Amino acid sequence: MKDFVAGLLAGITSSVVVHPIDTIKVTMQYHSTHSIHKAIHLIIQLNSIKGFYRGLPPQLFLQCASQTLFYGSYASCLRFLGADLDSGKPISLLHNFLAGSFGGFVQAFPSCFLELLKIRLQTTNHQQEANVYQLFRHIMKTEGVRGLTRGLHATIWRDSPTY
């Protein structure tokens, strides 16, 4: 249980600290600019100072769900493989890789869905889809369930072996 709680706390902390920086990065990519200063100006111009936290709810949920699932499934897999996590003995590289890959695979599912919502919210202005619910409805109406899983295969390939 402590593994899941640690994942939850890691998700909250990383979301609040990293989200404004991620918003700048996404703005730079979306508006094809190499200037951080220009990206910051665009964010403020389009959405005021609140623009740095546009898309935070799905990001917060994403990080909490992903990190909780990762930490929990990673530790569960290690225990399944016979590692005694409380003894302080080192974990073999193979067991660490297998457990990390399993954890990455499990967390890729909520990650894919919620990253899609986060990125779409970060790249819209305040006059477009205003909240997660409206965006979710719009995607379901125009793209269906497949639209929500766009990029799942790439997310699995990105996260499974790298975790």
From TrEMBL:
<dbReference type="InterPro" id="IPR018108">
    <property type="entry name" value="MCP_transmembrane"/>
</dbReference>
<keyword id="KW-0472">Membrane</keyword>
<feature type="repeat" description="Solcar">
    <location>
        <begin position="91"/>
        <end position="163"/>
    </location>
</feature>
<dbReference type="InterPro" id="IPR023395">
    <property type="entry name" value="MCP_dom_sf"/>
</dbReference>
<protein>
    <recommendedName>
        <fullName>Mitochondrial carrier protein</fullName>
    </recommendedName>
</protein>
<dbReference type="Pfam" id="PF00153">
    <property type="entry name" value="Mito_carr"/>
</dbReference>
<keyword id="KW-0813">Transport</keyword>
<keyword id="KW-0496">Mitochondrion</keyword>
<feature type="repeat" description="Solcar">
    <location>
        <begin position="1"/>
        <end position="80"/>
    </location>
</feature>
<keyword id="KW-0812">Transmembrane</keyword>
<comment type="similarity">
    <text>Belongs to the mitochondrial carrier (TC 2.A.29) family.</text>
</comment>
<keyword id="KW-1133">Transmembrane helix</keyword>
<keyword id="KW-0677">Repeat</keyword>
<dbReference type="GO" id="GO:0031966">
    <property type="term" value="C:mitochondrial membrane"/>
</dbReference>
<dbReference type="InterPro" id="IPR050567">
    <property type="entry name" value="Mitochondrial_Carrier"/>
</dbReference>
<dbReference type="GO" id="GO:0022857">
    <property type="term" value="F:transmembrane transporter activity"/>
</dbReference>
